[in-house]
Amino acid sequence: MFSLKKDKAPDRTAVRPDKPSLAQLIARRFIAVLLALATAGLLGIVGSMAYYRLKERNITIAAGSSDAESFVMMQALQTVAARYYPRIKVAVLETGGTGDSLKRLDKGEAQLCAAQADVPPGSNARTVAILFNDISQLLVHTGSPIARFADLKGKKIALPRFGGQYVTFLFLANHFGLKVSDFTFLGGDEGSANLAFARDEADALFRVRALNNAEIKNLVGSGNGNLIAIDDGAALHAEVSAYMPSVIPKGAYLGDPAIPPTDIASISTQRLLLAHRNADKHVIQALTQVLIEKREEIAAAIPAAHISMRPLAALIAEPPSQADFPAPMHPGALAFYNHNQASFVTGNVDLIALGLVGFVLIALWVSELRRLGLQGLKHHSDLYNRQLVEILQEASLDGADHSMLRAKLNAMLIRAIQDLDEDKMSEKSFRSFHIVWKDAMDAVRERPATDGSSAVPAPAIPAAGTTGRSGLRRQLTERSSS
User: Fold this and answer.
1) SS3 category, 115
2) What is the pTM (predicted TM-score) of this model?
3) Where are the beta strands (DSSP E) in 286-355?
4) CA–CA distance, 51 with 423 (Å, rounded to integer)
């Protein structure tokens, strides 16, 4: 009588699925949860970055009077920035000059402002870029006895009593031994001050403007205005580093006859673009990029009515050092300037790190999904092993119908081959299953069939590598049905 104990390979016939331990189950669950949390975190970061890039940002630039060079240039910046960064909405605000612009910046009413470098900004100001150079220009009427700055004592000056120009004038007055009470100032704004000078109501007009300024050109071109020198440029620079010795060159306003007829000594100061320290770093970086890299487009965007201002765009520059500037660099502007000097890896370290994290997560997910797939295949093969064990147990009973059991085994083999073709079972699992299946078939064959038929030899599985999956299926199917 057949007994399981007498089987030649009891260790193979008594195959039972390996059950993972509690520690293994907890470890697998922990890895899955950890991967899910890490993936959710990465998707959150990517989502926030995408949202930030798609979000519209509004920014206001305080730029002085509407006819000033800085205002016209900021309007041109607004036009060009809209081409490259349409989600950054720039508004250019007219103000009463540098003083008013700096107040609005300090209060947060503007995120950027154009200001003279010689006017001390508040603690909230940060430097972005150099726009152009302003030159102090002093006009007197043709035939006036005024020949130098000190001669202005007791005179009427066409100059509003506010803004950066007024600050510069008072500094010069103090240097030449004069005080506020030595002058009478005319004009509530630049327009009325210009009108007072044109009507001979004022003895002199003072402006801090770029060369070839349209208003000054009109005044000197009328034949009733001459530029006079402002001496002591080197001494003034020693007092305040923002002032630099400069020259109004011969013919700056007209070539023939030349106006001025000779070079005129003066001082200059830089017109800066400043940002609030809390202004969005990425917005400031983007606008700095447009300023520096798109100067030709900015020049072209200046309207024909202000064509004389177009050359100023070529003067836009990165501050060479922070030593001579009244405010430190804004982090956004600094990021752009450093990005140009840094290598690709250094300039994009955050994106590279994000990409590496994403790559690692993808690799871990592939590994985890592969493990789960193999676990599913093993579970499928374990089901066959359980059925084989049940058939062996049934075969050991007296009166077992071995013919029926052989039919079950043959049907099981056909299903296993179909599962192999459908990738529900790996080839390794199939070969392990076939070893046990063959032992089960041998065990059933040891007893004569109850219907008197002869036992059917168990089909042998081809050696590994001698046939493909389809060939394996065909051969085993033919043998099991024969």
Assistant:
1) strand
2) 0.63
3) none
4) 42
